[in-house]
Amino acid sequence: MVRATVGVLFVWVLLLLAFVVACGAVGSRLNGTVTGIDGSPRMVWCRYMLWVPGISDSVSGFVQEMNMAKSYGIDGWAINTAQWHSAAWPIQRMQKMVQAAEQAGFKFFMSADMTQEFIGAPNAVVDMVSTVATSSAYYRVNGKAFLSTFVGQSVGWNWQNSVLNPLASKGFSIYFVPFFGGDPNQVAQQFPFVDGYFHWTAWPYLNGNLQVVDPATDKQYRQIANQRGKVFMAPVSPYFAKHYCGLPSDALPNYVFGNYRGAGLWVEHWQQLIQIGPDYIEIVTWNDYPESSYIGPITAQWGITGNCNGNGPVMYDRSSFPHDAYADLGRYFIQAYKQGSYPTVTQDKVYVFYRGFSKNQQCNDPTGLGPVQNAQSMDDQIYVVSLLKSPATVRLATGGTTINFSVGSGLQVNNVAWGLGSQSVTVLRGGQQVAQKTFAKQISTQCTDGDLYDMNTFADYVSF
Cis omega (within 30 of 0) on the bond before 248? Predict the structure, then answer.
């Protein structure tokens, strides 16, 4: 009897240890909130491009954006800048950003974009961090100021000696979670002093298959982080398509990264990351309008100031391509990520995602860049994502065609080839109409802004 009892206890101890190890791999639960490997609550960040304010270059404008982000479940900005001393605006804008964050109760950390000034000026990174990390809004882990990067693995100087040690001498201990490109195992071996890993494989093109959202890099970094006692911050992005020339120079100025099947990249990658359990997630981006990865407001109009193959500057207006449907849908996944289980749907919503014209559209494009590379990997379909409390019929009218989708409760994705003209959704329950919306953008043979190639998506929704 005693032996049997001891044996049972031994089995229970083994099971408990296995549970603890499993929780350590993907986070543990504390008061209903899942925590990361460093004990911090799971947090969702969004990359904010400092060079282009989403609403206005003012404290009030930044507060408005922060409150908007908070409503989606976003905890703070990962503020990306490639400049600090080389122009007047970065420091001036960050002063407003810091004031806004303190007013809004919104966290932020800096992400040094290692593509311009910082490459040859590690002292500028030191000055940047020491200038803003005194703020009560600056994110810290166990008293250490959180710092990230966009690349920087090949700068020609040592991060420990040139940035981290000088900051320590100024009284700033750093929690360093950079994105350093390259093979994950090599990155881990080359930079053992980092506190965690971030990567940039938010889009399927990096894995060589434009049609598949592949979580292989996420899984690899999760494993490496667990083995080395580091944190893992994963990227997630709704989209990526750009078509511009000028500064900053870019190896891929005219590219779309894969066929995302509407919101496929957004939905599928969130679902994958919720399973993998990174310690942090960074949404890429809030306001990178040229790369069409934004989920924030589209108040700002941005222009290209470079010489577009001798054709002069070009102005894009993103006001006809809202992406806030991505952000609103993201709220559902953010909540699931933070609490470790999908929430009960409390508000019926139907989202639509489509482009303004066919992948085969010919445009009289003044940039001289030609059609967007990989455009043929896209499809000409409209995607409907339903998030419902109870079953309903979702009726899509696309051009002159009407299609009924029988949709159950929870999340469901449907799609169909689009028709030219207006696009609308009607929702019925028990044969009675409960919601209807005709969306602002029609699908046409008209290129963006008259004559520009553009693979950006229109995203909107109806709630009821």
Answer: yes
The DSSP secondary-structure symbol of 42 reads P
Question: Mean pLDDT for the chain?
Answer: 88
Please say if the pLDDT value at position 404 is more than 50. Answer: yes
To 5 degrees, how large is the angle CA 309–CA 312–CA 318? 105
Kindly give the pairing relationship between strand 33-35 and strand 28-30: antiparallel
Percent of the chain with pLDDT over 70: 85
Give yes or no for a contact between 197 and 227, defined as CB atoms under 8 angstroms apart: no
Closest CA to 382 of 401, 406, 407: 401
Report helix, strand or coil for 68: helix
* pLDDT higher than 90, residue 369: no
Could you give the maximum distance between any two Cα atoms of the chain, in Å?
89
Helix (H) or strand (E) holding 281: strand 280-283
162 CB neighbour count, 10 Å cutoff:
16
User: Tokens 């990658």 identify what position?
Assistant: 269
- Answer yes or no: are the C-beta atoms of 326 and 459 closer than 8 Å: yes
Query: Alpha carbon of 220 to those of 188, 199, 232, 234: distances in Å?
Result: 11, 11, 10, 11
Q: Is the pLDDT of residue 295 over 60?
A: yes
Beta strands in 140-276, from DSSP E residues, in sequence order: 140-141, 144-150, 174-176, 196-198, 231-236, 241-243, 254-256
pTM over 0.85: yes
Q: Which residue has the tokens 């109760």?
A: 105
Mean pLDDT over 401-428 rounds to: 98
Class of residue 127 by CB neighbours under 10 A (exposed 0-12, middle 13-18, buried 19+):
middle
Q: Are 110 and 127 in contact (CB under 8 A)?
A: no
Which residues lie below 8 Å from residue 133, measured CB to CB, with a gap of 6+?
Answer: 110, 145, 172
Per the CB < 8 A criterion, the answer to whether 263 and 295 are in contact is no
